[in-house]
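User: Okay, second chain of the day. Same drill as before: sequence in, structure tokens out.
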Amino acid sequence: MRTDISPVNFMANYGGMTGDKRLDSRTQQLWQSLSKQPCSTISRLADSRAEQVAYYRLLENEKLTEQGLIEELTGRMKPLAVGRDLLCVEDSSEINVINNKNRLRENSGLGGSDNADNATCFKIHPGLVLDATDLNPLGFSAIKVFHRDIDRFDRFERQYKRQPIDEKESYKWIEVSQTSKSTLSEASSVTFIQDREGDIFEQFALVPDQKKASSVDSQ
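Assistant: Same drill. Structure tokens below.
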């Protein structure tokens, strides 16, 4: 096990993210609260009604962006990649908030579920990076957040087989792999591990290079 990993690589630093010191400080505070109480609601995290309102205002502020949070997270992975042989594990998860469906706003970035027709979920497809030698998790190389439009045509109406790959949902495998290659560019090697959904021709044509190989587990 390598011991040259500083704990700072696993601690978020939102200084300068929004251009507003108060917002940056509030974001840091929210991260610290979530670290202590994962999977908690805002009302549970807040110590007072005023703090609860402040958190809601923070999350609605246009200066705090999804992309900014992702770049902060993946940016911490870059220095850890240098000189390492790495595994990048990809898969998709679904975050369903159906228990709060009566509180959801229109155009909130939610879509259909794999298991229901209501627009109450979003999906996340990350690249989780492990050290290939000791299998220690090091961080995330890329994260794609998306939703499936509730009123989209089915695969036959869309003529799915004729669609360009970058218009298909399966493009997530290639997109996250390509972004991960950039994040992990200083690694000695990167092996991508995916399930059989990622077993598509374009993946093998576009992703591998002299330093990186794409591996698909079909089990």
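The chain has two domains: 1-64, 83-216.

User: Thanks, on to the next one.
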